[in-house]
Amino acid sequence: xxxxxxxxxxxxxxxxxxxxxxxxxxxxxxxxxxxxxxxxxxxxxxxxxxxxxxxxxxxxxxxxxxx
Length: 67
What we know:
Shape: elongated
Radius of gyration: 18 Å
Structural class: mainly alpha
Low-confidence stretches: none
Order of helices and strands: HHHH
Number of domains: 1
Strand content: under 5%
Helix content: 40-55%
Largest sheet: none
């Protein structure tokens, strides 16, 4: 329930809550960001092309949130 969630104590989020009231209080935002070092741009493109096969699986995992 959104009333039970712990909110980040930042001024920015507090500003959003004050400005948007119930909309901001009900936000349940989760994220994951991964940084991977690559040798150069060509290597990065090759890795991205290799990972395209798994993109539907990653999308399916992100859509199965219990919230």
